[in-house]
Task: inverse folding
């Protein structure tokens, strides 16, 4: 009885399984950052983004694009490299409580991926169609594209890659082989970025209205829907957590 009581006290004294602070701060990073991006686009999209041959376009938009490339490549290399470098080499021997804690951390990563997918594949993608139905493009690197294709898409790709790597390197549930639903949920939306090349080629050689129902845009829809593969990941998570809770209660 005394041993059991001490064990319960020790578990209670430990940090909560879900770090709510990280969840809130992580969400705020995406919300505040994209709020600033939308403000920047609203101010400098109209004042400096309508003529790609104007000097101010180079100042406010092409430099913005160059900075994006450097920061995105650096962030992906550092973040993915860190997650892989600090991987748990004895992941199959962790305690049930530690595994539960890691699942909660994994859910925090999934929430961040949800925010990134929303802004990239929904908000700025829908906005891009509206922009180009209003403004006739004179370059592939329009203000809307610089934010949508070359900022928001790489951000959700980086976030999704981090989710997958965290699960693969720290959770026993994902150790055997490659989780098919996870690959669909991360690799599918990633393929939207190569599809951008086809999209820009089509708009260069065919003068066409910016309609989402145009066949040229079918790739965006197909790969965007691949994000629904995350439902398979959630199903796996629920099963794994339920199993751990039964084990812990037993």
Result:
């Amino acid at each position: 009885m005394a041993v059991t009581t001490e064990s319960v006290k020790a578990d209670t004294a430990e940090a909560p399984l879900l770090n709510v602070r990280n969840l809130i701060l992580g969400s705020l990073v995406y919300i505040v950052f994209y709020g600033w991006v939308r403000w920047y686009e609203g101010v400098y999209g109209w004042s400096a983004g309508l003529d790609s041959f104007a000097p101010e376009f180079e100042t406010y938009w092409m430099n913005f694009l160059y900075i994006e490339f450097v920061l995105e490549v650096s962030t992906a290399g550092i973040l993915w490299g860190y997650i892989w470098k600090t991987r748990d080499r004895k992941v199959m021997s962790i305690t049930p409580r530690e595994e539960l804690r890691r699942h909660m951390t994994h859910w925090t990563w999934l929430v961040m991926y949800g925010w990134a997918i929303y802004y990239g594949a929904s908000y700025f993608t829908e906005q891009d169609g509206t922009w180009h139905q209003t403004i006739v493009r004179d370059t592939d690197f329009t203000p809307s594209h610089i934010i949508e294709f070359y900022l928001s898409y790489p951000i959700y790709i980086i976030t999704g890659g981090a989710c997958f790597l965290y699960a693969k390197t720290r959770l026993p549930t994902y150790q055997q082989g490659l989780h098919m639903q996870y690959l669909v949920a991360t690799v599918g939306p990633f393929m939207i970025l190569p599809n951008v090349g086809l999209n820009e080629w089509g708009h260069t050689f065919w003068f066409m209205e910016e309609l989402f129902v145009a066949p040229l845009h079918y790739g965006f829809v197909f790969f965007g829907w691949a994000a629904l593969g995350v439902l398979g990941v959630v199903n796996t998570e629920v099963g794994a957590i339920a199993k751990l809770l039964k084990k812990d209660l037993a």
